[in-house]
Structures are given as structure tokens and as C-alpha cells.
Amino acid sequence: MALKSDTSMTIRMNKEIKQKAQQVFANLGIDMTTAINVFLRQAIYYNGFPFDVRFETPNDVTVSAIAEGEKMIADPNAKRFSSVDDLFEDLNNLESAFPIHSR
Predict the structure, then answer these.
(1) Which residue has the higher pLDDT, 101 or 68?
(2) How far apart are CA 50 and CA 40, in angstroms?
(3) Could you report the per-residue pLDDT of 34-78, keeping only the tens digit for each?
(4) Domains of the chain by residue range
(5) Considering Cα of 14, then 20, then 25, then 31, what sign does the dihedral take?
(6) How far is Cα 10 from Cα 36, in angstroms, rounded to an integer?
(7) Are the CB atoms for 94 and 81 separated by under 8 Å?
(8) pTM (2 decimals)?
């Protein structure tokens, strides 16, 4: 049987974060050491973080679409629909009024 070659690691973290994380892991039936070992093994497996690490900042197209939507919502004259079916019915009526011709 192979001998274990364990090592220790010391890290600093916010006390409240540590307590909350310990509670989460306790609910899962594991301790902090086991949780950190799972994280490290997954990082090795994925050759990076085992989850997305990114800013949730929308790109310019999304920012523009959000602004357009907010403007439409604020416009009391904007057409409103009570269901998706009503929306599609309106779109079909527009298509009939303005048919698209193939070349």
C-alpha cells in the first residue's frame, strides 16, 4: 500500500465567509478540508477553475437592447400584448399587410 504524502496549507479568509462555508459543507456532510480538496481536484481535472469566473457585465448589444426595452416599457403609446398568441397574431397581420417578396 502506498504511503500518503499529505501537506498542509494555510490561507487567510474572512471569518464570516469561513463560517458560512463551513455550514454549507456541514449540510453536505463534509468538512472544509474535504471541500477544498474537492475544489483542487476539480481544478486539476478542468485545468482551471471548475466554474465560470467572469464579470456579469452585458456587452454593448445587450446594453442597447435593455435600454430599448426600458424605453418601450415607459412609452404609454407602445403596443402591448396580453399573450404570446396575441403577439404572433399581430406579427402575422403585419406580414399580410407588408408581404416579403422573394427575388
Answers:
(1) 68
(2) 9
(3) 999 999 999 999 999 999 888 788 889 999 999 999 999 999 998
(4) 15-46, 60-97
(5) positive
(6) 12
(7) no
(8) 0.51
